[in-house]
Design goal:
432 residues; six-stranded antiparallel beta sheet; nine-stranded mixed beta sheet; 34% helix; alpha+beta
């Protein structure tokens, strides 16, 4: 099963303020935020992980070659420093959600790469080729992982999590606040503890929570290097940097991702409702004074079944509940139950595709379908003239992610949004 190992991480010089040089994962940074990170500090990690395009870029000079040059220069100048000892890094995030303080922790380490067919590392979500090409170009130039792939593990026999918890009773080696989340890191160099962790993971499967594109990029990079150099058992590119978190950690939070529908040429709310009623119970609910709060309350009350909220921007919304799972079972007989009975699967199959004509290619290209995890934004969008309607969902549950992965299936894109996001720039992995 999973093979983990310590590594000599590349980190920012201790004199550098991490709050000024770290960033969120590249794929949630807006163009405005990207420019802000660039301008606020010349050593911000976005210059490596999510560079700006420039006028005159070409095959030999572009954001990827600039990332390579920045990386080499920062290492040369001591802005970045490579550790002289192997270590595993315990990483904890502490945050406030709904006026309650929560936290979760795991370890950042190297994980041996396995093809998905080997069922050691399991995906749960579809990926896009464009995003993988971007990450591959960056890796080909820099030979590095700047951010950790976020994965989950099951520790029913408590072989691993108690070791991490015990070590984290001491004061952290790194502690700072970034975007309202407290970041804590413990640097574990004790060989006996590292060996216990290695043994503890030797019988475990890993479930990718966030970072599917990056993991597949690592596999593609490994394949390219093996074609060039032949297979080498201990080559550094046989491993990727991961954050491993216990699936039962009570601090884990998954947000839903809501669907925004636009540009349907013959869209008609009432015709759509008539079609939906063939397979769903539909309840019209008048809004009193708090659209978002009232919709969230309805979603929460109906979270045990397959249901969602349908809203067109008026003074009412609809609760939509599947009448019988036989409808989705008949529509997708070749798919396992774990996949069929996801709210997002039912929405995409029985409404998006069947009633609105938005097929998978359309969804991938974001032609008629946009996504947001912000329910306020979704409701606001529904009230604009450019949007036909929105569908609001409950969050996918952790056990559903595990079940779909074990059934060798992948959820539709944007099925999960883990919160908070792991920070990029605390530790990095250079392949040489």
């Amino acid at each position: 099963m999973a093979v983990i190992r310590p590594f000599k991480a590349v980190r920012y010089n201790k004199d550098i303020d991490l709050t000024k040089v770290c960033a969120p994962p590249y794929d949630i940074i807006s163009p405005k935020e990207q420019l802000s990170f660039y301008e606020n500090n010349p050593y911000n990690i976005v210059r490596l992980d999510f560079g700006l395009d420039e006028e005159g870029d070409n095959e030999n000079y572009n954001k990827y070659t600039r990332a390579r040059d920045y990386l080499n220069k920062w290492l040369e100048d001591g802005v970045l420093v490579k550790e002289n000892e192997d270590a595993i890094y315990i990483y904890e995030q502490q945050f406030t959600l709904n006026n309650k303080t929560r936290s979760f922790r795991g370890i950042i380490c190297l994980v041996k790469l396995y093809d998905f067919s080997e069922k050691v590392v399991l995906p749960h979500e579809e990926t896009l080729s464009k995003a993988k090409k971007d990450r591959f170009n960056l890796m080909e130039q820099t030979h590095a992982n700047f951010s950790q792939i976020y994965s989950l593990y099951l520790d029913e026999e408590k072989k691993v999590t108690p070791i991490i918890s015990e070590y984290a009773k001491s004061a952290p080696d790194i502690c700072f606040e970034f975007q309202n989340v407290i970041q804590k890191v413990w640097i574990v160099k004790d060989k006996s503890i590292i060996e216990k962790l290695r043994e503890g993971f030797s019988d475990k499967q890993l479930f990718i929570a966030d970072g599917h594109h990056r993991y597949e990029t690592c596999l593609n990079y490994k394949k390219m290097m093996e074609e060039r150099e032949g297979k080498k058992e201990d080559a550094p590119y046989n491993y990727c940097m991961m954050m491993l978190v216990d699936m039962d950690d009570e601090g884990l939070v998954v947000f839903p991702t809501h669907r925004i529908v636009r540009g349907i040429s013959d869209f008609n709310e009432y015709n759509l409702i008539d079609r939906i009623k063939e397979e769903f119970y539909v309840e019209k609910i008048d809004i009193k004074n708090d659209p978002v709060g009232e919709m969230e309350e309805v979603l929460t009350k109906n979270s045990s079944g397959i249901s969602f909220v349908f809203y067109t921007g008026h003074s009412y919304f609809y609760l939509v509940k599947l009448k019988d799972v036989k409808y989705i079972d008949q529509a997708l007989p070749q798919k396992p139950k774990s996949y069929r009975h996801l709210d997002v699967t039912v929405l995409h199959t029985l409404i998006m595709e069947k009633c609105l004509g938005i097929d998978k290619e359309n969804m991938a290209g974001a032609k008629n379908l946009l996504y947001t995890r912000d329910i306020d934004e979704a409701v606001k969008q529904a009230q604009s003239e450019d949007v036909d309607c929105v569908f609001l969902l409950n969050a996918t549950k952790i056990h559903q992610i595990k079940d779909v992965s074990l059934d060798n299936e992948k959820m539709p894109q944007k099925s999960t949004y883990f919160y908070p996001k792991l920070v990029t720039g605390i530790v990095m992995y250079k392949f040489d």
